[in-house]
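Quiz preparation item.
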């Protein structure tokens, strides 16, 4: 009887850990068209993941643990990335930055190094930010492999985790990246910093939608800079622990 109980406990633990969330993130400031656009993209993207057709595509972490991971897309730049790093440093939070390799030039290289040196992840957001779902297999691999090599030349680490620009994937993208040993990282909570230019609305959106194990999507833009500090404090007040993406997921970030 006791054995049976532990068996079901084990089963329950595994099945919960495999729960794939719906993507949240909303605001009364979004118009009807944008809401419709977002909902369509979310359903179309998540259905093949939740039904097991797309494999190795991560949306969220374990729902049993009160932890979240912050992720920032589209760095580096010569302004907001440094500001985000200052705020993260002040709060002692480690995050993941999905970077675009083509913008890692001249004055921006030092901020890529700084991101790595301060214990954040420098991950792959392609070479030039195309919709990967518009490309053929060799172009998909080219975009990701060249970006990873460029990141490795700066940080010393070849990232195994990538985020598709616009969250745009199809079966060819998933298959190609899986064949290349890469893991697709989406998100379960969209801060909407890219469409809400109001930092209070971004904080309110995150706080009212957060769940255990959320991967939170943000960007290196002025709205995220303005909202980050308060967001971290309010999440901490609600008892959430911040973990770096690879630690929350229990996976390797680098080759
Ligand atoms: Zn992007």
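Solution:
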């Amino acid at each position: 009887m006791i054995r049976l109980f532990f068996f079901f406990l084990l089963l329950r633990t595994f099945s919960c850990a495999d729960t794939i969330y719906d993507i949240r993130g909303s605001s009364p400031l979004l118009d009807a068209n944008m809401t419709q656009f977002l909902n369509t993209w979310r359903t179309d993207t998540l259905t093949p993941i939740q039904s097991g057709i797309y494999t190795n595509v991560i949306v969220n972490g374990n729902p049993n643990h009160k932890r979240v991971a912050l992720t920032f897309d589209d760095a580096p730049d010569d302004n907001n990335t440094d500001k985000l790093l200052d705020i993260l440093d002040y709060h002692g939070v480690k995050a993941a930055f999905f970077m675009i390799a083509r913008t890692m030039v001249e004055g921006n290289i030092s901020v890529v190094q700084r991101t790595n040196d301060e214990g954040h992840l420098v991950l792959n957001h392609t070479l030039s930010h195309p919709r990967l779902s518009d490309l053929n297999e060799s172009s998909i691999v080219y975009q990701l492999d060249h970006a990873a090599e460029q990141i490795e030349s700066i940080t010393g680490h070849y990232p195994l985790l990538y985020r598709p620009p616009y969250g745009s994937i199809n079966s060819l993208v998933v298959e190609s990246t899986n064949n290349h040993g890469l893991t697709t990282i989406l998100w379960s909570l969209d801060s909407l910093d890219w469409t809400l230019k109001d930092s209070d609305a971004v904080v309110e959106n995150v706080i009212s939608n957060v769940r255990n194990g959320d991967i939170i999507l943000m960007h290196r833009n002025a709205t995220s800079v303005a909202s980050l500090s308060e967001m971290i404090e309010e999440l901490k007040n609600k008892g959430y622990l911040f973990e770096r993406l690879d630690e929350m997921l229990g996976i390797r970030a680098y080759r």
